[in-house]
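Exam revision sheet. Question 4 asks you to relate a sequence to its structure. Input first:
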Amino acid sequence: MSAVNSPRTTRKGTTEAPWVRYTLIGIALVFMFLFLVLPLAAVFTEALRKGWDAYWEALKDPDAWSAIRLTFITALVAVPLNLVFGVAAAWAVAKYEFRGKSFLTTLIDLPFSVSPVVAGLIYVLVFGAQGWFGPWLAEHDIKIIFAVPGIILATIFVTFPFIARELIPLMQAQGNDEEQAAQVLGASGWQTFWYVTLPNIKWGLIYGVILCNARAMGEFGA
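Answer key, structure tokens:
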């Protein structure tokens, strides 16, 4: 066997030198420590500086429970709505060709490029006292801004791409063969979705829901 085709030569041609691998791994670990582990450690250290007793006492504060309850209410409303939207949007983008498909994909990605603070400002301009619908809302005693509905609307906006963005490439990679076969065999649209599509996307769907819920709770302040 010639040296060109030998396994050792192939490995050397496709694998970096050990010092390169170790250097890259070391840089990645240092980066994770500085920007992930260290800040998390600082947060927990400061939170528990006065001990667990002070922590439990803080949880008994009515304001703390109100904030926790509001956070859970927001997530419980925003995540299911984004679940429905994400699956529908991913199904439309991945399974069909239609006019405006690129525009829909751009709209799905929009919250990734817009700051949550800007999104909140947009809702203030639309639903605020001097906004487009502000006078009408005031006349009917409907509160959107600085109330639970405004928080939920802003949270839905900043979190709705996550599920769709997880499912679109997954559905595109799977193609339409299995769905078409199910329909040829007499399955209805809902049967095709529940017994063919959903089992194929369940792990991506679960991951998207987790990301969506984490963003809903993490972006609450913004």
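Marking note for examiners. The mean pLDDT is 84.
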